[in-house]
Design a protein that fits this description.
- By secondary structure, the protein is an alpha/beta fold.
- Helix content is 34%, strand content 26%.
- Strands 7-6-1-10-11-12-13-14-15-16 form a ten-stranded mixed beta sheet, sandwiched between helices. It has a four-stranded mixed beta sheet with strand order 5-2-8-9.
- Helix 8 runs antiparallel to helix 9.
- The longest helix is centred in the C-terminal third of the chain and has 16 residues.
- It starts with a strand and ends with a strand.
Length: 325
């Protein structure tokens, strides 16, 4: 039996750190543009390669925190796919449900990193998603996949109902575009739903705006059927509710190198803490500490904490807590 099976797309990510003298940023007009001279050869300061994808990040993070985790994803029978499987094994994430598709390519992302922000060039290979016969798991983490995911979403809902697993859901861009017709049944079956402020207002629709009071937004998500609603809000940190109480957890002061994977890291810490029987305020602290670790290094996985590191950082910062609002 697994503690957590993550479901979603996986890619090979390459981060190119661009020297400041090669880029132009017009901060005064709030318009930031990275510009290169046509035909130039651009020298990068640092090159970081990793595997990526929302669910892959969570599977790796959960494994480091001590869970027996697996990943369902689809890759091509290419060199990139071989690297993805190798990295998962190294992180002690079970590759049992990694589907290798013949004559297909694996997903690939090239990132241009500048002053802690990144611009992504993303290639997604077309897929036909269908869940394999999954072993029993205590938790399912469902996140971003490409077009054609609808059947798989229905299968995930059927699975959690059949085996009694708990579902954590963090919809990606394709799921948001599909709307509540597809997301509604998933949210109704979820233990935890992760959204940012803009996504929350978008799925709630008429009568809601991203500038609304956070309690109104959280209540709206709870009314869709999930047991725990989590809203991330940039510099304001995170908010969460169980439908009765509301909490806010600020951001943890940490150096910012790269924000890629920050949200996935928060979802990792939060979900793992809840899976271990910890309360929501503690889970928010775990999520925040994971995010702080990830943004301090390049790429979405290098800063994910081990169980020992999480214990240490929480112990050293006992005054950092989520507060009732």
């Amino acid at each position: 039996m697994f503690d957590l099976i993550a479901i979603g797309d996986t890619s090979r990510d390459v981060f190119n750190v661009v020297p400041e003298e090669t880029a132009y940023c017009s901060i005064d007009t709030k318009e930031c543009v990275i510009a290169f001279n046509y035909g130039d050869k651009i020298i990068v300061e640092e090159l970081v390669t990793t595997i990526g994808g929302n669910s892959a990040n969570v599977a790796v993070g959960a494994s480091r925190l001590g869970l027996n985790s697996a990943l369902y994803t689809q890759i091509g029978d290419d060199e990139v796919g071989q690297v993805i499987v190798s990295e998962l094994k190294k992180e002690k994430v079970s590759p049992n449900y990694v589907l290798v598709e013949k004559n297909k390519r694996s997903n690939y992302t090239t990132a241009i990193s500048f002053q802690g922000e990144r611009t992504l060039f993303v290639y997604h290979e077309p897929r036909v998603y269908e869940l394999p016969d999954l072993e029993k798991s205590a938790w399912i983490y469902l996140s971003s996949t490409g077009n054609g995911f609808e059947k798989m979403h229905s299968q995930a809902v059927e699975y959690v109902k059949r085996v009694g697993a708990k579902l954590a859901y963090n919809p990606g861009s394709h799921q948001m575009k599909a709307g509540m017709r597809v997301m509604g049944p998933v949210i109704m079956s979820s233990e935890i739903v992760f959204l940012n402020r803009e996504e929350t207002a978008r799925i709630l629709g008429d009568g809601y705006d991203s500038s609304d009071d956070v309690k109104k937004l959280l209540d709206g998500v709870i009314n869709l059927g999930t047991k725990i609603a989590v809203l991330t809000d940039g510099p304001s940190g995170s908010y969460a509710t169980d439908g009765k109480n509301y909490w806010n957890c600020g951001i943890f002061d940490a150096p910012i190198v790269d924000r890629t994977g920050c949200g996935d890291a928060f979802s990792t810490g939060f979900t793992v803490a809840i899976s271990k029987g910890l309360d929501i305020p503690t889970a928010m602290v775990w999520g925040t500490m994971e995010s702080a670790g990830v943004i301090a290094v390049m790429g979405p996985q290098g800063g994910l904490l081990t169980a020992q590191e999480m214990e240490r950082v929480v112990s050293q910062n006992q005054d950092f807590k989520a507060k009732l609002i």
